[in-house]
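Q: How would the structure tokens look for this protein?
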Amino acid sequence: MDFNAAENQFAVLAESLPQLVWSARADGSHDYFNRRWHEFTGLTPEQSEGDGWLNAVHPKDMPEVRVQWLRSIETGAPYEWEYRIRNAGGRYEWVLSRAVPIQALSGDTMRWFGTSTNIDAQKRAEEAVRRLETRYRLALEAADLGTWQIDLEKKQVLWDEGTCALYRILHDGSLNLPLSQVIDMIHPDDRDEVQARIAKACDPQWDGHYESEYRAILPDGKLRWFRSVGQAFFAVDGDKPHAVILSGVVSDITERHAFEEAQQLLTRELNHRVKNLFAIANGMVSMTARTAKDPKEMATALRGRLSALSRAHELVQPASAIAQGSGTDVDLARLCEAVLEPYRQSSSDRVDIQGPSVRVGSNTTTSLALVLHELATNAAKYGCLSNPEGRLAIRWTVHNETVDLHWTEGGGPTVESKPDFEGFGTQLSQRSIAGQLGGTLEQEWLREGLRVHMTLPLNRLTG
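A: Here is the predicted structure in token form.
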């Protein structure tokens, strides 16, 4: 078959194909386009021949299209490129153009035969997927979430960049980790529960839903709380389904968990203070009844003590009041007097308060008042303030930017031994002094009474 016959057969085939078919001379000059090209672009043969076809190419794509086509002409390498061309209606659509050289026996290129396939629907679908992925990623970033996926057969975990960031792992893109390594990052006390929840989600008898809260130990050694929610996906092997993938999202809930713990602590604290308040009031009634000469004197003294107790509790104000600017500084002596006033007999000096002037800032008044209140409550229940002969001395000095405060009880019931348990009030005092005031609290249980030594950094106390 001669070359002309082959070209005739090519023309017949080209006219029957749904693609845009074209051919070019060895120098790259186009000399043939099939009917589909002219119908699609609206260009006539005269407008398309030579380099005229480039007029249909999108202006932004034309420079690279020309470069790639000339490179194939020069090297003889097959041509393949994606670009947009204008249709007869004036709208640009994506095409994938491919061309191969037809070579003579000498190896020289004689002609080029090519096709342009419309891939506009595919491109638009890819763009829609990209936009959806972008919105999805923006939503995850706005919610500070990361995604993860467990390949249950390979025992591999895939983390995205968001999850890596939550775990403080510097990594570009996704990260593959062995499932055992991820489990090892979970706090030992939480591992069994997490693994049990994974197993339950992967059980075909359940709905595949996974949800858990756990602590993880980060690479820097810090402990953070996380919440993971996911869904298992099942495959059917014969007639028995089994989980193959478990995927979901993870969030850092450390701050929320700390807030919930603070709320629980506040609830316990309020319950504890209410119980103590009733115990104190009951003790006041008994103590006043022993010393009052008649009911009128008892009523007057009791009203005074209850009023003093109310003033002391006003100093123990919630943090929200301080945050709103209602907290005020108070002198340390005034704070001690307000807290201890309900226990002072009008005719005695059973409570001795002495020390230099020290301002207690509004941010620390609550913490220190709580500690003094707890010590006074215990003294009224079990210590020196539980009988008329008891005495209490509160003394402090200031040295090297530190306040040394001594609480010394005497004259109360004999102390046989140190208590064998630590109540909530003691725990609250330790937490307030060490955590909120940055100081120390030491207790010494002597036979004649309790001695407490507190050290308080002056800058924290007045701050």
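DSSP finds 15 helices and 18 strands in the chain.

The longest strand covers residues 223-237.

Upvote if useful.
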